[in-house]
Amino acid sequence: MYFAALLARTEDGWEASDTELDDVETLSDLADLAREASPDEDTVLVLIEQEDAWFGVVRVDGEEDPRIYVSDAAAAARSSYGEILLTDELLGREPGDDGDDLDALDLDGTEDGESDDDEDEDGGGGSDAAAGSGEAVPHGPVGDAEVLDDLGVSEKELRSMSGDAVGEIAEALGALDVLETVR
Question: Buried b vs exposed e over 21-58: b needs ≥16 C-beta within 10 Å?
Fold first, then answer.
């Protein structure tokens, strides 16, 4: 089970809104959604949590590039919402590194529908390549662990959070009450 919320900082404090991520396919879509929540280009936090498995924080300050922190990249990689956050840049890969996966495939012509006993083996080779790319995602946190420093949540505190991390973050920001209204 997932929970996602937007916390927008305003002159009057934090405003919370729950958000539906079904139409969000990319980090850019998510950043646009966050920017829509704050017409004055104030700080907006997108908090995403999957039941005790992982959580993510995306911070959008006006038109600046989003800053991202994910508590467990390997767990998030198994989630459609987590995949949105795990960009090549966040994982320390060059954009387009997916080409390595193509190099690992054994393309001997049987993939064009030729009937051959080797076809099953080729399928297995493709799966191994996909599994290999999944292993490139590190276990543990990735991203900007200082994403909330200036808001009162230190890197150390962020890295030590588990369980209801979204609630802990909201509490540290003084926004727990507004977050609970959308939970």
Answer: beebeebeebbebbbebbeeebbbbbbbbbeebbbbbb
Choose among 58, 16, 66: nearest CA to 171.
16
Contact call for residues 48 and 2 (beta carbons, < 8 A): yes
Render pLDDT for 108-158 as a digit per residue (tens, 0 to 9).
Answer: 554 444 444 444 444 444 433 333 444 478 899 999 999 999 999 999 999
Instruction: For residue 63, give the nearest of 84, 43, 89 by alpha carbon.
Output: 43
| CB contact at 8 A, 77 and 137 | yes
d(CA 138, CA 72): 8
Cα–Cα distance measured from residue 93 to residue 87, given in angstroms and rounded to the nearest whole number: 8
> What three-state secondary structure class fits 80?
helix
